[in-house]
Amino acid sequence: MSEINGERLLADLRTLAAIGGLPDGGVDRLAWSEHDLAGRRWFAERMSEAGIEARVDAALNIFGHLPGTVGPWVLTGSHLDSVPNGGRLDGAYGAVAALEVLRTLAESGDPLAEQLEIVGFADEEGVRFESGLIGSLALVGELDIERLRDGLDWQGVPIRQVLAGAGRDLDRLLEAQQHRDSIKAFLELHIEQGPRMEADGIDLAVVAGIVGVHRQRIEIQGTQNHAGTTPFRLRHDAGRAAARAAAELRDLVQGVDAEAVANIGSMGFHPGGVNVIPGRAQFTLEVRHLDEPVIGEAVWAFATRLERICAEEGCRVVVELLSSVPPAPMNETVVAALEQVCRELGRRPAKLSSGAGHDAAVLSRHVPSGMLFVPSVGGLSHSPRETTSDEHLVLGARALLRGVRAIAARIK
Amino acid sequence: MSEINGERLLADLRTLAAIGGLPDGGVDRLAWSEHDLAGRRWFAERMSEAGIEARVDAALNIFGHLPGTVGPWVLTGSHLDSVPNGGRLDGAYGAVAALEVLRTLAESGDPLAEQLEIVGFADEEGVRFESGLIGSLALVGELDIERLRDGLDWQGVPIRQVLAGAGRDLDRLLEAQQHRDSIKAFLELHIEQGPRMEADGIDLAVVAGIVGVHRQRIEIQGTQNHAGTTPFRLRHDAGRAAARAAAELRDLVQGVDAEAVANIGSMGFHPGGVNVIPGRAQFTLEVRHLDEPVIGEAVWAFATRLERICAEEGCRVVVELLSSVPPAPMNETVVAALEQVCRELGRRPAKLSSGAGHDAAVLSRHVPSGMLFVPSVGGLSHSPRETTSDEHLVLGARALLRGVRAIAARIK
């Protein structure tokens, strides 16, 4: 039975981390930046050294499979781009582990190697441009080219120009989807990017699904007035109404479902004078859960309570939908196979939902898909301090190898 | 018994409102602006027409008394400057009513006229420069010239230059205090600028005192984190802690004293991303009451609860004092005299605290002082929609005449 080379995996992770590496241990490989492109070239070179045929598609996703194989393949990998001043493992870990798995299988002449393709996706993060997941969306043919056409990055550079600099044509991004039917399943290994596994002593987790995310912008309209001359009973204080609702958010959402999470990330009172009763308060609301009806119920519970509070305070509520991304449940057969892998590795199968988005959410709408998580120390991610122990990194890659074998056996 | 001429009072108020008047009925006579100076000239001319000797002091306060009288006088009046896009009555009403009272007494040969001086103060509002109350502070010798010396207005014009344009020298502002000892009492008639009198059906109110104002800037420090991957139980959400405290402010303050008011006028969460748990929350707190110990108790009650909430949320609190202006109780003899005036006019004496600052707060530290309020329609002030019914405007001036007579009799 083939086994991955842990030292080689860790060495490759260190080498890739140096490309766009920062003095504080962080990494800056913003999508299609010079460093991102250098990282992709490095990834392709490692493939070639291992006798894997590398191919770069219209979106600069990099694929690799054994020469002469024709698919459909079980695809595994993750993204190679990072957020600015990000960590060395977010995305890179799943791509490098995929490389290590296919390399291991190829070296040992394992016939599974012929059923496997690996990938380093482009622009998963969505920091440089608004959207994110451009690589995987192009692959599955879901990319909305019209929306991207006049897109600028945060420094005002047109996305068209960025792609041209990397030898790619914006209008031809969707040619990436020609490869879609050559994929029969997808497995992504990733760091958790949260604190739950560490807090609960879990070494390896099977992702049950990727949560849906509902976002609103809420404005409360009251009456701006003099804070010295207006007694409490005669106020319509938009700030107070917003604070009361925000204070109750957690209990309301947990009352609907213990696994639901929500956030009020921004809050502003207007006009903002120390002696002026706020006439308006604005805040954002985000609710996440694996089941869409639960999201709806939680949003409704908050809205109902907010309406009640505003009626008490003599204020009005205006709600604007910002976005609503549906949950992406992972494939049941894949999940069952990955739970079996955990048991083979002596770990009690732990199922988690992913609170963050991933390429696997996009792939799951087209092929049976699954994800494996290893713990993030301190739950930190999108930070130079993002890290995972070597033991967990190696464990994850071992699980990935067993995972692709189990999936190849079960998904035809 | 002399009685003021209501029609003349209302006509004068209309004429003054046209100086710096705006199409929407508002007034713009920012301190020492061209319109403010024109208003002051108009005020002096009305005095001269009535045989009152007008005098402009080093701070551009305008005084008027009968020729040949030497004081010490009972002073009455208010300020002539306005906020930008302000109302026609804030300040102007008390100054024009004072003019009407002295004019009435002079016309009828009432000996009380000799005991009376009237004033139109300069820069009460404190909008053009940070401080405000410059006119009355200069009169009582409390003005901090050093702090003003490098002061700029909001358009970058040095205060020195503004004063020079009006024929005054910043370094000589304190010469205004030469007049202080000629004043034996002060009475100010003003609109309420709040909704309490209208709400409670009060036509005329005696001000018990001007509230003290305590202001803080509060920062709550938590842990910035990913809102999708961090479960509620592992969060240190600075925004939630701030919202919980803000939601409880009213009950905490009212629990200390039913007359205490407080405000959270500004609130901000950082970094402010829809999907980021706030690592910091900043807000301002303001507490007002007529008794300083009550302010202290209310501030303490909030601070104690905030500390408790932050301990529960795993956050820290940093409190910065912005300012603390002590309460200014009105003189008991003056208050009793004014209550008697209410009864003479067939009104049940109603005592109110003033939630906003006034020149009377400054004067009260040096001579027995008092204030009378008439209702503001809808409680509106610092707005073009600020207004008071003609009946109440006339009633207030009638009370002012009786008030100065009662004070002249009781304060020696």
Structure, explained:
Two copies of one chain form a homodimer. With about 400 residues, chain A is an alpha+beta fold. Chain A is about 35% helix and about 20% strand. Chain A contains twelve helices and 16 strands. In chain A, strands 1, 2, 3, 4, 5, 6, 14, 15 and 16 form a nine-stranded mixed beta sheet that branches. In chain A, strands 7, 9, 10, 12 and 13 form a five-stranded antiparallel beta sheet that branches. The first copy, chain A, has a two-stranded antiparallel ribbon with strand order 8-11. The longest helix of chain A has 22 residues, at about 290-315. The mean pLDDT of chain A is about 95. Chains A and B meet through strand 8, helix 8, strand 9, strand 10 and strand 11 of A and strand 8, helix 8, strand 9, strand 10 and strand 11 of B.
Write the layout of secondary structure elements.
Two copies of one chain form a homodimer.
Chain A: H1 6-18, H2 34-49, E1 53-56, E2 62-65, E3 73-79, H3 92-107, E4 116-121, H4 134-140, H5 145-148, H6 159-165, E5 183-191, H7 196-200, E6 205-210, E7 212-221, E8 225-226, H8 238-256, E9 261-263, E10 267-270, E11 276-277, E12 280-289, H9 292-313, E13 316-325, E14 328-329, H10 332-344, E15 350-354, H11 359-363, E16 369-374, H12 390-410
Parallel strand pairs in A: 3-4, 3-5, 5-16, 6-15
Antiparallel strand pairs in A: 1-2, 2-4, 6-14, 6-16, 7-12, 7-13, 8-11, 9-12, 10-12
